[in-house]
Amino acid sequence: MSWQEYAVFLLESIEIYNRDLMLHYYRKIKKFMIWHRNKYGVAFEDIPDVAEPRLENQKKVISWRRIARAIEKNDFYLRKLSFAQTKNDDRELMQLIHKWDNLLNKSTITDDKTLQKVIQENYK
């Protein structure tokens, strides 16, 4: 399986349980791809499966591995793709928590300290 296939598989797997969360990831990944197309001229079909690991770790190149790893880590804010936490993301997170309490709640296990803080502050 290629990294592109794996990224799509992960998104489809998320959709089975939570379409709203899948759409959140989809919108941000699409924005990431458009930014790379506009800034560096990398068309969707030209996104490499993998890039040099050093450049991926420095967030200097786009690759399907980088996208898949961000999804795999449940990186809600997609920091691994150079996004920052926004108030809109926080609002969307809280809507997801209240709508999908059985799948995402205050006991959600994550190693993202910011995500855990937002959950604890807003889920009372």
Question: What report would you give on this structure?
Answer:
- It is built from six helices and no strands.
- The chain is mainly alpha-helical and 124 residues long.
- It has one domain.
- 60% of the residues lie in helices and 0% in strands.
- The chain has helices at 3-17, 19-40, 53-57, 64-72, 87-99, 113-122.
- The longest helix is centred in the N-terminal third of the chain and has 22 residues, at 19-40.
Main traits of this protein?
124 residues, mainly alpha, 6 helices, 0% strand
Give a nutshell description of this structure.
It is built from six helices and no strands. It is mainly alpha-helical and 124 residues long.
Radius of gyration: 15 Å
Give the overall shape, derived from the CA principal axes: globular
What count of structural domains? Answer: 1
Could you say which structural class the secondary elements and strand pairing correspond to?
A: mainly alpha
Question: The biggest beta sheet, please?
Answer: none
Q: Name the helix and strand elements from N-terminus to C-terminus, one letter apiece.
A: HHHHHH
* N-end to C-end Cα span: 42 Å
Mean pLDDT: 87
Percentage of helical residues?
A: 55-70%
Number of strands: 0
Strand content: under 5%
Number of helices: 6
Any low-confidence stretches, pLDDT <50, length ≥5? Answer: none
